[in-house]
Amino acid sequence: MNLVEVREGEANLLVPDPASYTKDGKFDPSWAPVFYNPRMRLNRDLSVIMVKLNRVRRALDAFTASGVRAIRYSLEGKAEEVNFNDIDPIALELARKNAELNGVKGRFLNLDARAAMFNARYDWIDIDPFGTPAPFLLDGTAAIIRKGILAVTATDLTALEGAAPRACLRKYGSVNDGLSSSKEIGVRVLLGSLVRAAAVAERYIEPMLSFYADHYIRVFVRVLEGASKADQSLRSMGFVYECPNCLYMSTSKIAVSNCPKCGGRTKLAGPLWLDRIEDQTLLENVQQEVLSGPEYSKKALEIVSKLRMEINFPYWRLDKLASMLKVPMPSRTKLFQCLREIGRHVTETHFDYRGFKTDANYDEIVNCVKVQS
């Protein structure tokens, strides 16, 4: 395996040389013998901050590959103990070399990820597989210690966003017809799947930080115990429905098949998580860490800053509303001004540059789009 040395955060890493694994002048990290994707740095930057803020004692990187995540958890996150696991012995050997290169000590496990989760009592388990995390959610929520944190990445967005509805139902147990706010729907479907997985063992989750970026979803949840709290968590599940004709959108505890505005057949997504997807107090601390760390990406600050402002309701798509109304799309500035003049709260959303979030009702939104177009 041909290797090159790169630097990420405070870590020096040996990774497969992209030049040796290109095809027709293109390179995909999955073509290399060991996976390392520099585009996931934002994911790792925010994860490092979460490890640091939560004073993690024993962390498991269940899909370690090059070892970059666990190494940074030790160097920058100050985790007391890091555990590297990969079912591929070649990847595990490279992780070991990288750990030695950075003076990081830890345990190296060559196990199936689900077996590794039960190998010790972890207060942080990182589930970042190639593809869907669905097969690992039940074991992850059961294996983590009480008040421990699960950090989960999902890249199977065709399922989570509703482009592959049968896959979404099969993997995550949710109907998903592909709504305009598909990126946020994906986050809420994943959180809903975690809620149900935890409830099997009379546990429940508290979302800490959830975001969508660069074609993946990342969620951090704290796992706690208690049958009554698990029941309460399940009551925070429900549906988002949207009318494809008039774009009316709302949430409900039960599936709504017909639009209350025009009577059209609705598109559905659910059951999914309807409550908050972040802890606002924690977000403030994360934002301060991003600002104090010159090595963190600008994208991290943008995401966290917008999340701090977003209300707990799926976003609207300005371009789709204008198209439905057959009017020119107004500027976001004018739309926001119109909504604020009638006393409504409105913000951008990190999920989609074409989207916005507001506590205004459907008629108020439609009127402002028309007036400002």
UniProtKB/TrEMBL annotation:
<feature type="binding site">
    <location>
        <position position="262"/>
    </location>
    <ligand>
        <name>Zn(2+)</name>
    </ligand>
</feature>
<protein>
    <recommendedName>
        <fullName>tRNA (guanine(26)-N(2))-dimethyltransferase</fullName>
        <ecNumber>2.1.1.216</ecNumber>
    </recommendedName>
</protein>
<dbReference type="InterPro" id="IPR002905">
    <property type="entry name" value="Trm1"/>
</dbReference>
<keyword id="KW-0819">tRNA processing</keyword>
<keyword id="KW-0862">Zinc</keyword>
<dbReference type="GO" id="GO:0002940">
    <property type="term" value="P:tRNA N2-guanine methylation"/>
</dbReference>
<feature type="binding site">
    <location>
        <position position="113"/>
    </location>
    <ligand>
        <name>S-adenosyl-L-methionine</name>
    </ligand>
</feature>
<keyword id="KW-0949">S-adenosyl-L-methionine</keyword>
<feature type="binding site">
    <location>
        <position position="112"/>
    </location>
    <ligand>
        <name>S-adenosyl-L-methionine</name>
    </ligand>
</feature>
<comment type="function">
    <text>Dimethylates a single guanine residue at position 26 of a number of tRNAs using S-adenosyl-L-methionine as donor of the methyl groups.</text>
</comment>
<dbReference type="Pfam" id="PF02005">
    <property type="entry name" value="TRM"/>
</dbReference>
<feature type="binding site">
    <location>
        <position position="259"/>
    </location>
    <ligand>
        <name>Zn(2+)</name>
    </ligand>
</feature>
<keyword id="KW-0820">tRNA-binding</keyword>
<keyword id="KW-0808">Transferase</keyword>
<feature type="binding site">
    <location>
        <position position="243"/>
    </location>
    <ligand>
        <name>Zn(2+)</name>
    </ligand>
</feature>
<dbReference type="GO" id="GO:0160104">
    <property type="term" value="F:tRNA (guanine(26)-N2)-dimethyltransferase activity"/>
</dbReference>
<keyword id="KW-0479">Metal-binding</keyword>
<feature type="binding site">
    <location>
        <position position="69"/>
    </location>
    <ligand>
        <name>S-adenosyl-L-methionine</name>
    </ligand>
</feature>
<dbReference type="GO" id="GO:0046872">
    <property type="term" value="F:metal ion binding"/>
</dbReference>
<feature type="binding site">
    <location>
        <position position="86"/>
    </location>
    <ligand>
        <name>S-adenosyl-L-methionine</name>
    </ligand>
</feature>
<feature type="binding site">
    <location>
        <position position="44"/>
    </location>
    <ligand>
        <name>S-adenosyl-L-methionine</name>
    </ligand>
</feature>
<keyword id="KW-0694">RNA-binding</keyword>
<feature type="binding site">
    <location>
        <position position="246"/>
    </location>
    <ligand>
        <name>Zn(2+)</name>
    </ligand>
</feature>
<comment type="similarity">
    <text>Belongs to the class I-like SAM-binding methyltransferase superfamily. Trm1 family.</text>
</comment>
<dbReference type="InterPro" id="IPR029063">
    <property type="entry name" value="SAM-dependent_MTases_sf"/>
</dbReference>
<dbReference type="InterPro" id="IPR042296">
    <property type="entry name" value="tRNA_met_Trm1_C"/>
</dbReference>
<dbReference type="GO" id="GO:0000049">
    <property type="term" value="F:tRNA binding"/>
</dbReference>
<dbReference type="InterPro" id="IPR022923">
    <property type="entry name" value="TRM1_arc_bac"/>
</dbReference>
<keyword id="KW-0489">Methyltransferase</keyword>
